[in-house]
Amino acid sequence: MPKVSIIIPTYNSARFLPATLQSVLAQTYRDYEILVVDDGSTDDTPAVLQPYRYEITYIHQENKERSAARNNAIDQASGEYVAFLDSDDLWAPEKLKRQVAVLDAHPEVALVYCQARYIDENGQPTAFCGDWIDGPKGDELVIADYFEALLGGNVISGGGSTSMVRRWMLNQVGPFDVTLNHGEDWDVWLRLSRLGPFAYLPEPLTSYRVYGWKRLLTHQSTSQAIEQHLRVIDKNMAGWDGDPVRGERLRKNAMRGAYLLAALGGYQLGNFASAMDSLARAVQLDPNLGAEQEILWLAVDRAKIIERASGSYAEAIGFMDNVFDHLPPELSGLRISRRQAAGWLYISGAFEQHQQRNDARARRLLVSGLLRAPRALRNRGVLSILADVSLGRPLAAFLKGHPDEEKAA
């Protein structure tokens, strides 16, 4: 019996499958089986898989979507652990080895997941949403209870390709919900988190393929997505047996997160009516969200993602204009924060450029930011960068009282 069952659902991904399978066959850990579920593909998937016929178990089904494909493979899997891999994603050679070691060493852990890097359609690294998927960087394995963190949103990013789970636990919590087209991974992770802690490996052992923000945001911000995300929340809070006041607070916070995700996607896509409605509902659930600084930083944080993905501050500023031009009526007084938000977008860029020692670029961004948000001069970090890029790092370090700082750098 193999130690790991690798489950690869696929639908019309023939052009990506060879690279995906090669990344599995290149694993340094070899005790596995590969189950590829062809979910009724109409391209040349069967022909592409033919050279791998001795290395995979090929399962064909009528088109029933990814959850049904995964469930089909789980029913036929024989491994102690199950690792999911989307048919257009890639694994680093050490992925299985590192995750098997974690589950072997920590029998209480239900799921282990890793960090991932974004790649584009051509397999090239892309800064879409930043270089890495959500999650703290570091060197140490983190083991923690995840239920409450997961309620706020699916922090197990990577579409399942970053994860490995214990098969008996997966069988205990039940199959992927085939009625969900949105949040089906999230739903299973929430159920698993009730059985044991999760482990996080802060190493980018997966390459997660993205096709541009419009496709992703359209998927996230539809009325169907909102409805299904709320259904996942209600479904997983139904068994809450803790303090009822805390449970209601967790439920509201989770709903707030679902509405915010939809609102930000709507603003970015120009679907202003739905964006305004979603933001208003989020504020109803959490009135503190209507504070000036909360809205400002919501806009700045998403705008920074847009700037990284597009390389264009103009596009990022355009997004913030969308937000402040189309706030719900009860928040219309916050439109005056537009200029300050733009300022902090430039200032955050200055921090990044300063960290990369691109001081000329940092200086230009800092000036642009301070012209729009002069109150940022009250921030000690801003003042420190201003000194570095204006006076030069050696003189600035001397004046700050730590002249050896630049030598150490």
Automatic annotation (TrEMBL):
Keywords: TPR repeat, Transferase
SUPFAM superfamilies: Nucleotide-diphospho-sugar transferases
Listed InterPro entries: Glyco_trans_2-like, Glycosyltransf_2, Nucleotide-diphossugar_trans, TPR_rpt
This protein's record includes keyword Transferase: yes
The Glycosyltransferase 2-like domain, residue ranges: 5-124
Keyword Ion transport in record: no
Gene Ontology molecular function terms on file: transferase activity
TPR repeat coordinates: 256-289
Name assigned to this protein: Glycosyltransferase
Organism: Longilinea arvoryzae
